[in-house]
Amino acid sequence: MSHDATDLAQIVGIWKIVDATAHDPDGKPLPKPYGPEGMGLVSLTANGRMMCVLCDGRTELPEGATREYASYGGNYTFDGETLITKVDLSSIPRITIGGEQVRKVRFEGARMVLTPPPTMLQGLVRHREIYWERVSDQPA
Fold first, then answer.
1. What is the mean pLDDT of the chain?
2. Which of 25, 40, 66, 115 would bridge 104 by S-S if both were Cys, CB 3.0 to 4.6 A apart?
3. SS3 127
4. CA of 39: how far to CAs of 18, 60, 104, in Å?
């Protein structure tokens, strides 16, 4: 894994979530991660540091629903296709300190699409994609 300046230029900055999708192993759509009004930011620095925060941005949730929330950060590497974060802070028990968060990265126009490995949540295997738009070339 490298920190090639060309690769890094693609991702360095502050990005906001604009969409998130999920489907089961058969391709059947599942409810949107972080609800219908997902909120989130990811900040990636040129020196290889990142932080991410995501949540359900609705002002009120339906009866019985719980607000999905996730935040983590650490040092990262990016080779032009794969973003790997060595986690050193996390709000989520399943994202362990010292572990790695691996995301495949692709671009659709101005959007960056991050695809984590499938995750088992609430008894279902979920394939997720998170869509981001850059709001600043300068990281926070």
1. 91
2. 115
3. strand
4. 8, 14, 21
**C-alpha span between 69 and 71 (Å, rounded):** 7
When pLDDT is averaged across residues 82-101 and rounded to a whole number, the result is: 92
Phi, psi dihedrals of residue 5, rounded to the nearest 5°: -60, -35
Amino acid at 93: P
Cα dist. 56→19, 25, 65, 89, 93 in Å? 12, 24, 11, 20, 18
Please provide the CATH number assigned to the domain covering 5-136.
2.40.128
Average pLDDT for residues 65-76, to the nearest whole number? 94
Domain ranges of the chain: 5-136
Closest CA to 34 of 120, 110, 128, 109: 128
Q: Buried b vs exposed e over 61-94: b needs ≥16 C-beta within 10 Å?
A: eeeeeeebebbbbbebbbeeeebebbbeebeeee
pLDDT at 2 over 50: no
pTM: 0.88
Work out the average pLDDT over 82-102. Answer: 93
Q: What is the pLDDT of residue 4?
A: 61
